[in-house]
Fold this protein.
Amino acid sequence: HALYAGYFLAGMACAAYIPCLALIKQSVTKALAATTMAFANMMIMLGAPLFQMIIAYLIAHPLANIAAQSSLCYQVAMSILPITAFLAWIASYYLQPAEKLTVATALNQY
């Protein structure tokens, strides 16, 4: 039964990607949909290794003056996750619905 619970929790964790990709797909035309969704998926997958490096740096930082076995050290390092979740929540209020991006307007921007 623990395996089923693990699959359920993994599915709940991955469910956060679905609204992000749906929003991206609705923001661009069909000509750009595959490219933008591939880029977004790449950025999503780069998030985990980036957070692993940040958390490892915070745990092992010599200026922390906290013993490596201290639970406070891990709490401080892991606090980066709810902090960034809160910042993403705040940033979501500033997302404005925009007109669909086309290939022509994308090329004109550069």
User: Anything to note?
Assistant: The mean pLDDT is 78. The chain has six helices and no strands. The CA atoms of residues 21 and 41 lie 8 Å apart. Residues 30-60 form the longest helix (31 residues).
